[in-house]
Structures are given as structure tokens and as C-alpha cells.
Amino acid sequence: MTLKSLPQMQNSYQLAILKSILDDEEIPYFVRNENLSAAYGFIPDFQEELQVSEENYDRAIEIIKKGFPEITIE
Hints:
Order of helices and strands: EHEHEH
Number of strands: 3
Oligomer: single chain
Structural class: alpha+beta
Number of helices: 3
Largest sheet: 3 strands, antiparallel
Mean pLDDT: 86
Shape: globular
Strand order of the largest sheet: 1-3-2
Radius of gyration: 12 Å
Helix content: 40-55%
Distance between the termini: 22 Å
Strand content: 5-15%
């Protein structure tokens, strides 16, 4: 299974909300840098990164576009 990274959230609150929405939509995700962000806080280089499978990526991006229009999608 290939994982794709989702766009970075602007703060830990947005990240927590996105995790909750992905859980509600039953989209499994992997949290990269989870332990580093716990140790160093919300520092950009140690920010948690959500990754989803390729088959769930488009759904997750649509959720971000609807719920977080300020987030840049590349």
C-alpha cells in the first residue's frame, strides 16, 4: 500500500479536527512525526503529517477543500 501525504494544517487544532473527520468518514490514516511533535510542540519541522492510502487520497483532499478552504492544495 502506497501512502500519500496530505497538506499541512496551520495549527494543532485544525489537525485534530481533520483527524476526527477522517475517523468519522472511516478513512484510515498514518501519523508521521507523531512522537517528534509531542516532544517539540507545533514547530514546522516537527509537525505531524497525515498520510492516507492512494485510494483514499482524493476523498481526503475533498474533505480538506470543504472544511479548510484556507489550506493550499498543491
